[in-house]
Fold this protein.
Amino acid sequence: MAVLSVSRRARAVRVLGVVSASAALALGTAGNALACDISEFSAEAKCDGDKGVITVTDVDPAGIPATVTVYLENNGADVKKIGEQVVRGSREGTTITFADDWKPNAEYRIHVKAARYVDEDIKPNLVTPATACKKKEEEKPPASTPPASTPPVTPTPSAAPSKPAEETETPAPKPSESQSTSPAGNVPAPAGDSNLAETGADSNTGVIAGIAAALVVVGGGAVFFGMRRRGTNSDS
């Protein structure tokens, strides 16, 4: 009976040990699953407008606080500490931003430290893109347009004073061919005698011509006798 009771106790202790070991293993596995790990961190170089920034994202679902430090590298050595921030991860991811106007192809070292879980760098180091962030063209104010110069006012010469109506010279009407100017010394016949003038009736032209011819004859005779008489006187 005593031997049987000892064997039962030993079996019970053995079972209890197995259960305890299984529980410890389960707790250890769960702890490792919830523990912070460097693989849960990632870094990226981005542009915020025309400025460069570096972002670090933590997807640790346990939300263990971790300190992230960013360094600018040159030939494998830290040249400048860009900044340091604490991040609490989440299943969806928590992102922190470091403002730094990075240059193309620049190299950065990102170190993560979270209690006893993590104390190492994100591998590989972050290398920025080959193209820098585009700078916005500065908007130049439009050139002010100079006011248009006003041309000098030229006095307009006043119009010549108009002559009174009575002083205005009215050009004489040009005589038509039917009203051509008659020869000097001849007076145009009255309108009522125009037919008589054209036919020669009631004209003194013949009488005047006869008197003129008589005077010529008388004059010629007087000259002839005068010369003859002068010749006679000269002979005597």
Remarks:
- The chain has a mean pLDDT of 74.
